[in-house]
Queue: 3 jobs
Job 1
Amino acid sequence: MKIHDVMDNVYCIDTMVNGEKEVVASFILDFEKVAIVETGPRCVAKSILDALNEIGIKREKVRYIALTHIHLDHGGGAGTLIKELPNAVILVHPRGVKHIIDPAKLWTASQSVLGDLAEIYQPPEPVPASRVFGVDDMQKISLGNDDLVAIHTPGHASHHIVFHLRNLNMLFTGDHAGIYRNGWIAPTTPPPFYFEETLKSFEKLKSLKPRNLGFTHFGFADNELERAEKKIIEWAKIAEDVIRNGGGVEDLHAKLYEIDKDFVNILKYYKHSKIIQEAFRVGLAGLIEAVRPKVI
């Protein structure tokens, strides 16, 4: 674990999942009521606690664990962390509540999709129902000297939320805006991916004109929503062309590598990252699945 960056009382923590740098971030919001946005998987729960110690935040001060969605790399550590944070509750999309309380089905599905990567993440621990809250679209959560607003953003998943730190005008994008590093950006679109809903969600977010974004994969950025939206539209068109020509996931990967410099640079930057490579393997399959009905 290391504190990767700090911006206006918001700490970006590199959780170092599987020893991989700059792959999965957790954000600690050091306000009157402390919030943690994203926990990473269970295997890095101790890293979040170590970060709190390093910053100097007592565990009793943490009031919220906010999850953009329930995929293991974003919320798999919630059940482990909550046991160490006596005053905290978990905030999640209403669709995700039952899977945080009883993660058995989530774990089985994750094993099926992720294979041995799921074993690296480790199975999520259950959470008492009294400590899990489903948050409505545009629901405001007071942190005392700022507000965290939950914005339902279906697309990457039906249960996806982007959290808006209102006064600082910062968005925590989860997977909605994709993977970002060094100015490069690429979509993450695992099955089932909802393309039309993704575009509607972008419109909601762009209307906020955010000052900054916090990418779970990875770190702080300026407002890159327009680029992220344009990129997913471009990738969908390329996927449609691939399908028309009888191609599949490998063909889509090859075509994107041929024409998209961001995709090439991210793949090269993360060439040793099992997590990012797997994200694209699963993601391109999801994109093919999502656009196929438009072609056939």
Job 2
Amino acid sequence: MKNAAAKTFLPASIALTLFLIGCATQNGNPAHARANKGYVDFHADSAADLWWEVKRFDDHAQSFTTLFSQFKPVPNGILRLELAPGHYHLQVRFQNRAVLEPMETEVDVENGLITPVRVAFKAGGISIIESKSTSIGSTAYGRYGRRTKIESSQNPTYEAMAFPEPPVAYRLKEQMPYAR
């Protein structure tokens, strides 16, 4: 009986995985809008090369699930997500910028259209980062010993704000007015 359950579980889990992968493509840029798909373009006012992480709120699980996460900048400064038409509650974090809280926004995705979301940053303060390193070796007195070096640095923190804009006709990312 366990074999029969395993035989039905594996195909079902593969189908579920493929379905979830098909719900959103990561930073897509097809030549033409795909059938039954809409797009969200995240772009920032600043010229900084941002490392994006975008999560979608799942009403059923009552938690956020990751749609996109990348530890490098996106081409043209635009993160484009392909989604099924509908209403989405999204949370955005940045992997390479100290932001006080994750940015949250509500967007409506329409079939064949792009919903631009402009992201702006406002200075939020300063964060102090301390790092501690220990090494073993000879000391200034010629003896063997342990040295501990403590360094601190100040980094700016930001408040991220999202400004969804009205949907526009589909175009390649390079052709968008906010492309860099």
Job 3
Amino acid sequence: MKLLVGLGNYGSKYDGTRHNLGWMALVEWMKNQPGGIEGFRHQEKFKGQIYSKPGITCLFPETYMNKSGEAVVPLMNSLGIEPKHVIVLHDELDLPATTMRLKFGGGPGGHNGIRSMIALAGDAFWRLRLGIGKPENPAFKVENWVLSKFGPEELSVWAKLMPELFEAIDLCLADKAELAMNKINRKVKA
């Protein structure tokens, strides 16, 4: 059993924001699966929306980013999933926009959702880091940047990158994370 987690802030006012890129990407992956989202069984418990089918559970925490671990860890425990079988999709300020990196373990790198998970479950889980870059203007506060909405051009670039992201997720699910890392841990030119 594998657990895919799309990090973001819950609520319609956060739809389309940079901080919700992990959530958005996981929704797109689910839509691309045989049967689409309808092919997954939907539940609401453990402080999140849960979609599952044989061998795969997807979680969208409803705890807000800073408390993501409070949704993820109880579900992991309930399903008997070890951290090494968890793949978290999240936005990453420290990566240039439209780049992706897959990594196992390590620190939170300033990401409060990852920090929350590490505090409750340790760091031995996979992270699919989706670059949102930093604001060009240093006076623009990071908090405002991550909560700002993507522009149409940025969304267009991410849409073109989705097949590569889907492949990385599928390789991780097939226990081929090393191959996924070789494919996506490079600069992606938009």
